[in-house]
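Retry 2 of 3 after timeout on previous attempt. Resubmitting structure tokens to design endpoint.
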């Protein structure tokens, strides 16, 4: 289920940074949870599938229109640690 993001044109740059950092931390927590519950291999597969969908355009994002923003988001997801943050 994909929800259309609401236009937040009145959000300040600082607020936008807080939201992005929070979402990044939430995604990292989700990867940690998957690793803890289903194992590191499942967490790697989740992250790999997410990156594949992002890079292929399956996740419909205007993000793909701006190379610098796209590269930033892909790099942040690629850098989410899996094994180093999870004790099995």
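Retry 2 succeeded. Sequence:
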């Amino acid at each position: 289920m994909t929800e259309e993001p609401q236009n937040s044109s009145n959000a300040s740059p600082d607020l936008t940074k807080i939201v992005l950092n929070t979402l990044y931390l939430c995604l990292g927590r989700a990867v940690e949870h998957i690793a803890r519950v289903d194992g590191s291999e499942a967490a790697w597969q989740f992250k790999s599938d997410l990156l594949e969908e992002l890079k292929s355009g399956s996740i419909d994002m205007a993000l793909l229109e701006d190379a610098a923003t796209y590269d930033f988001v892909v790099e942040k997801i690629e850098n989410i640690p899996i094994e180093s943050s999870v004790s099995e």
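Attempt log closed. The two ends are 31 Å apart (CA to CA).
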